[in-house]
Design goal:
NAD(P)-bd_dom_sf, ornithine cyclodeaminase, domain 1, two-stranded parallel sheet, 32% helix, hormone binding, six-stranded antiparallel beta sheet, Ketimine reductase mu-crystallin, thiomorpholine-carboxylate dehydrogenase activity, alpha+beta, EC 1.5.1.1
Length: 165
C-alpha cells in the first residue's frame, strides 16, 4: 500500500477532494459531483477505547467508502489504533476492496496537513519543527519535506527523523 500512496499523488487528490467537499457542504452544485460525508459515529467501549465508523459517498467516483477504526490507548504490545477501509460500488452496493486503514490513515493525515500548510502559510516555509512522535510525527515529516524545500527541520522526540539542514 505504501508503494501506491505516494505523497505527490495524495496532495493533488486531497486538494480536489477538499474543494469538492467544501462545495458540497455549502450546498453549491459542484461540477465534479456531490460528496456526502456525515460526522463520524463512535461507540465507546468503557475503560478500553472506542470503535469509529466514518462513511462517505463520492458521486464522481460512484463509490461508497467507510473507514472502520478502533482506538485502545492501553494496548502495549500491539498498536493502539487499528483500521480498515471498505470500498463499495455505489451503483449496486457490491464490495470492491478491503484496504489497510492504518497505512491509508497515516499517509492521508500527513498529506492533509501538508496541503493545509500550503494554503495557510505566509510565503514558502523554511523551517519545520515537529512536536510529536511515532508514526504521525514521521509521516508528517515525510509529507511536509516532500511538499516544501526546507532549510531546517527537527523534532522534539528522538524517534522522529531529524534533518538539521
Amino acid at each position: 500500500m505504501q508503494d501506491i500512496l505516494k505523497y505527490n499523488l495524495l496532495f493533488d487528490a486531497l486538494e480536489r477532494g477538499f474543494a469538492l467537499f467544501s462545495q458540497s457542504s455549502c450546498g453549491q452544485e459542484a461540477s465534479a459531483g456531490f460528496i456526502d460525508q456525515p460526522v463520524r459515529t463512535c461507540v465507546t467501549i468503557p475503560s478500553k477505547g472506542f470503535f469509529g465508523c466514518m462513511p462517505v459517498y463520492i458521486e464522481a467516483e460512484d463509490l461508497l467508502v467507510s473507514k472502520l477504526v478502533t482506538a485502545f490507548p492501553k494496548n502495549k504490545d500491539i498498536p493502539s489504533h487499528n483500521a480498515i477501509v471498505a470500498v463499495f460500488d455505489a451503483s449496486c452496493g457490491v464490495p470492491r476492496a478491503l484496504l489497510d486503514g492504518d497505512i491509508i490513515t497515516t499517509r492521508r493525515t500527513a498529506a492533509a496537513s501538508a496541503v493545509a500548510t500550503k494554503h495557510l502559510v505566509n510565503g514558502e516555509p523554511k523551517v519545520l519543527a515537529i512536536l510529536g512522535c511515532g508514526v504521525q510525527g514521521t509521516s508528517h515529516y515525510d509529507a511536509l519535506t516532500a511538499m516544501f524545500q526546507l532549510e531546517k527541520s527537527g523534532s522534539a522526540r528522538s524517534n522522529v527523523r531529524v534533518d538539521d539542514g
